[in-house]
Amino acid sequence: MRLTTKGRYAVTAMLDLALHSDNGPVSLADISLRQGISLSYLEQLFAKLRKQTLVSSVRGPGGGYRLSRANDQIFVAQIVDAVNESVDATGCKGKNDCQSGTTCLTHHLWCDLSDQIHDFLSQISLAQLVSRKDVRLVAQRQENEQLVHAGEIDQSSKINAELLN
Amino acid sequence: MRLTTKGRYAVTAMLDLALHSDNGPVSLADISLRQGISLSYLEQLFAKLRKQTLVSSVRGPGGGYRLSRANDQIFVAQIVDAVNESVDATGCKGKNDCQSGTTCLTHHLWCDLSDQIHDFLSQISLAQLVSRKDVRLVAQRQENEQLVHAGEIDQSSKINAELLN
DNA sequence: TATTTAACCAAGTACTTTACTAGGTTATTT
DNA sequence: AAATAACCTAGTAAAGTACTTGGTTAAATA
After folding, report:
1. Model's pTM, two decimal places?
2. Which bases of chain C are under 7 A from a protein CB atom?
3. Beta-carbon-side half-sphere exposure of residue A157 (alpha carbons within 13 Å)
4. Is strand D within 7 Å of residue A64 (CB)?
5. How far is residue B123 CA from its own chain's centroid?
6. Would you tell me which of A32, A71, A97, B20 could form a disulfide with A39, CB atoms 3.0–4.6 Å apart?
7. How would you class B37 by CB atoms within 10 Å of its CB: exposed for 0-12, middle for 13-18, buried for 19 or more?
8. Is the distance between the Cβ of A48 and the closest atom of strand C smaller than 7 Å?
9. Which residue among A15, A91, A99 places its CB closest to the CB of B106?
């Protein structure tokens, strides 16, 4: 199966998007800062998410990304599928040619497992994640951290603004 | 999560072992031929399986490997765990330090998924796999192929034996 | 007792993927 | 016109996978 940091990053970024979609589009720079994912890597991931029409983009200043559907219509499995080729525990992508053209001994086992994982992740929407206590807690912490960082800049700029008067 | 060809190979090899354990220990050379896995790679995998006491070895001619427990006491999850470090969908191995020392937004989601996968694979024993129709079918095919290959040698050696009389 | 067998062991390597960097161009707002 | 942020391409260090090579050791067989 293909479920690595790549898929985790994609889901984390999409959840960040879902959490901050109140005030217009969210820039990848913001997500990068909050979630600690490199901006350029996010760009590559969002290119794939856009191709699968999970997000839509707005260019220019104040631009960024928006979910292309409602919270409860985007599921974790779709996000993971978008950035990896597939959520698939078999080595042959279900083609039954695992062992030099023929079915390998454990082919069906991995098919069953793939279904299991896919079913599980297909049932979890971004809306569900947004409403989870543990998610809200982490999101809160991240917003506080962001305020502290932004606060330092804001304070100095406020001071500068006062000095100018 | 860490569920790649490595784990698949290990489970396939262990299932082969379970299927052919009637007539004494099974050599890795046999498993290599039947399952199309390189002998040296199998040696590396079985070194780990032996460390986890899933198999025991018999050296010398006629030697090979045996399951160290009954069929129904060895589970797929144990095999996968033995060759990889862990069956773990989180990036931090459950240590909650996914995002530079702190918990990432989706940490709990991946914990849930890990549990899900582990539960699923913990319930499937080698005995269960051995009794599956699809497994028996593939095993039958592989044994036929082996007989064809061995048959060529056996036939010529039988002819040779007859000529000697 | 010599030979064969097969486990056991160590080092290295081609290949792939991941996560990221660098260095752009294009569209849109201010 | 300048700034912003999406969009795009190429390259790369690090890690893991699957495998090869070339041994050594223990046990059965001839």
Report:
1. 0.81
2. 4-11, 17-23, 26-30
3. 6
4. yes
5. 16
6. A32
7. buried
8. no
9. A15
Interatomic CA–C1' length for residue A32 and nucleotide D6, angstroms: 14
User: Dihedral sign, CA of B89, B92, B96, B102?
Assistant: negative
Task: Name the amino acid, one letter, at A18.
Answer: A
**Least confident residue range of A50-59, A70-79, A153-162, B75-84:** A153-162
Q: Could you give the C-alpha distances from B78 to A35, B90, B125, B145, in angstroms and in order?
A: 34, 18, 10, 30
Cβ A2 vs Cβ A82: under 8 Å: no
Q: Regarding predicted confidence, which is higher, B9 or B92?
A: B9
Average pLDDT of A132-152?
79
User: What is the identity of the amino acid at B42?
Assistant: L
* A58-67, A96-105, A134-143, B45-54: the lowest-pLDDT one: A96-105
**B86-97 average pLDDT score:** 56
Do the chains contact at B8 and A100, CB–CB below 8 Å? no
